[in-house]
Design goal:
The protein is an alpha/beta fold. The chain is built from seven helices and six strands, in the order E-H-E-H-E-H-E-H-H-E-H-E-H.
Amino acid sequence: MRASECDILILPGLGGGTPDHWYARWATKLSTATRVEQRDFERPVLAEWEARIADAAAVARRPVVLIGHSLGAVAGLLTAPDLPNVIAAMFVAPPSPRVLRTLAGVDRAFANATLRRLACPALLVASRNDAFASYEESTEHASALGATLVDAGNSGHINPDSGHGPWPEGLMRFAHFLGQVKA
């Protein structure tokens, strides 16, 4: 599958990101990508984030592919099993429930939700030195979801603070993954 054959929903994390974040750059590079806006990126409520993702998927004209980072990845992986038109997903650096419970202003539902196996192919990209999830926690997440774990090495939280502004390696990995997806 090519990017032009699907609607790509970009799911930003806590705070909504900055213009130099890799997902903001991807949203401008990928012509079928749409950033899913949330009512409140600073004090996220899981039910609201899930509803916004579901609404965006419902108006899609083509099969949907999710790309989520951090808390956006968590919202995406929790919502994806309920969205019949999601055909693939790439979740980057989702925080662990252990860490989510410590983040002020974050709805505890993000940490307490049960992971469900995905019905579509998915990648979970994890760093070995991410302060928001140990590699072992990410491995458990990937296993529970039925996602392929991608080892990003020592890449921090895979955001601009860890040197991943454009993140061309991630975009190449996404393109390769998408090329293997059958609509």
